[in-house]
Specification:
15 strands; D-amino Acid Aminotransferase, Chain A, domain 1; single chain; alpha+beta; 371 residues; globular; four-stranded antiparallel sheet; 3 domains; 40% helix
Length: 371
C-alpha cells in the first residue's frame, strides 16, 4: 500500500503498534506514529487515531492488520468525522473477522467450505472427532488473537489427545476455536482471489496461485504466481455480496483433490503482503481504492492482468527451503524456477531498500534468539 501510493506522490503517515513492523522504514513514509496495540488497549488506539486524523483531515485511513480492522470497524463513524475510512462498519466486518460467521454466510449462498465444527465443551471435541475424523486442524475463530497469543495460525492434531490439548490451550487463553477437516492437496492447490467491489460491482479482479507456503501446508505464502483461476471468481463475488462487503479484499481458497472443488478458507478484508503482485501485474488495488475513496473516481472494470509473474518473500523462502528441502518434495528446478522468471519481491525494491534491510536484521536477531 505504501509503495503503490508513495510512488504516485501520495504523502504517507505510518501508524505502528507492532515493534517488528518494517513499513515505517519506507522512503515514502513522511511521519511515523507509535500507538498502543488495538487488541489490548482499543480506546487508547482509537484516541491516537483521532488525533492523527485531526492533524490530517480528509486522509485515507487504511487498516492493514486484523486487530486494527476490528477496532477501526467498531469506531468507524467516530473516525469518519475527520478521515475517509477504508473499512466497513463492524456489522459487516465481524462476518469475515469471525470465521464461524464467514462459514455460516457461505453456507447460505452455496459457497463450498471445509467441514467445520465449533466445540464448546470437552465432550463436543470427541463428537467432532467422530464426525470429521483425524488428523484435523484446530483453528481459531479469530486468527489475529490466536497468532498474538501463540505465534501460529492453527494446530494440526493427529490424535484425540492432541485435539483435546489444543482445545484446552485455547480455552485457557479465553479463545474460541473450530475443528476443521484437512483439505488434501499440495501448497499449489491454494489460490487467492483479490477484488475491489464498488456499488455491488467487481471493478477489478486478480487471482494468484500459491507455489510454496511457510510453514509448508498450513503457513502463509512465501512464493505465489499470477494466474487466472476462473473457478474462484464467481463464488468469491457471491460470498462478498452476501457479506455486504465493498472495497478491497483477498479471499483464500483451496482445491480439494477429492472432488476438484475450490473451497473457501478465509476472507481477508484488508491489503496483505502478497498484494504487491497484483500491482506489478497491472491491477493497482491501492491506487484504485485511493482514487475511489478520496477523489470519487472509479476506473472502467479491469478484467486482465499479466500472468506468470512470481511474487517472492525471499528471506522466508530461503529459510524454509533450507530447513525443509528434505521433506517438501520439491526438485532443485522447482526451487529455482521463480527466481529465473519474471518476479517481484515482498520486501526488496531498488528504489526503497530500507524495509528489506530491516527485515534482514530482524531475521538475524530472531535466529539468534531461537539459537
Amino acid at each position: 500500500m505504501i509503495r503503490s501510493l508513495g510512488e504516485r506522490g501520495v504523502p504517507i503517515v505510518a501508524v505502528q503498534f507492532d515493534k517488528r513492523d518494517i513499513a515505517q522504514r519506507s522512503r515514502y513514509v513522511s511521519e511515523v506514529h507509535r500507538v498502543p496495540r488495538p487488541d489490548r488497549r482499543e480506546d487508547e488506539f482509537i484516541a491516537e487515531l483521532e488525533a492523527i486524523g485531526a492533524a490530517n483531515p480528509g486522509a485515507l485511513l487504511v487498516p492493514a492488520h486484523d486487530a486494527a480492522v476490528v477496532a477501526i470497524a467498531r469506531h468507524r463513524a467516530r473516525l469518519g468525522e475527520t478521515m475517509v475510512v477504508a473499512c466497513p462498519d463492524w456489522e459487516v466486518a465481524r462476518l469475515y473477522i469471525d470465521k464461524r460467521e464467514t462459514y455460516r454466510v457461505a453456507a447460505t449462498v452455496g459457497v463450498p467450505t471445509p467441514k467445520t465444527l465449533t466445540p464448546r465443551r470437552s465432550e463436543d471435541v470427541d463428537r467432532a472427532i467422530d464426525e470429521i475424523g483425524l488428523p484435523v486442524l484446530v483453528k481459531p475463530s479469530q486468527s489475529h488473537l490466536f497468532v498474538a497469543e501463540f505465534g501460529r495460525k492453527m494446530i494440526e492434531a493427529t490424535t484425540a489427545a492432541e485435539v483435546h490439548a489444543a482445545f484446552e490451550l485455547a480455552e485457557g487463553a479465553g479463545l474460541e476455536v473450530m475443528m476443521q477437516e484437512i483439505i488434501p492437496g499440495p501448497d499449489s492447490a491454494g489460490v487467492n482471489y483479490n477484488s475491489y467491489i464498488a456499488d455491488g460491482q467487481a471493478i477489478a479482479e486478480f487471482t494468484a496461485r500459491k507455489v510454496r507456503n511457510s510453514p509448508t501446508r498450513w503457513g502463509s505464502p512465501r512464493v505465489t504466481v499470477s494466474e487466472r483461476v476462473e473457478e474462484v471468481m464467481e463464488p468469491g463475488r457471491r460470498l462478498l455480496a452476501a457479506i455486504g462487503y465493498e472495497g478491497f479484499s483477498c479471499t483464500e481458497w483451496k482445491r480439494d483433490e477429492r472432488d476438484g472443488v475450490y473451497k473457501l478458507i478465509e476472507v481477508n478484508g484488508r491489503h496483505n503482503l502478497s498484494s504487491r503482485l497484483a500491482v506489478r501485474t497491472g491491477v493497482d488495488f491501492p491506487w484504485i481504492e485511493y482514487q475511489h475513496k478520496v477523489n470519487g473516481i472509479l476506473p472502467d472494470p479491469i478484467e486482465r492482468f499479466e500472468e506468470g509473474r512470481y511474487w517472492i518473500d525471499f528471506l522466508r523462502d530461503m529459510g524454509t527451503s533450507v530447513k525443509e528441502w528434505r521433506t517438501e518434495g520439491y526438485s532443485l528446478a522447482d526451487y529455482a524456477r521463480p527466481y529465473l522468471r519474471r518476479q517481484c519481491h515482498a520486501h526488496w525494491s531498488w528504489k526503497d531498500p530500507l524495509p528489506m534491510f530491516s527485515r534482514f536484521q530482524d531475521a538475524v536477531r530472531h535466529g539468534r534468539r531461537a539459537g
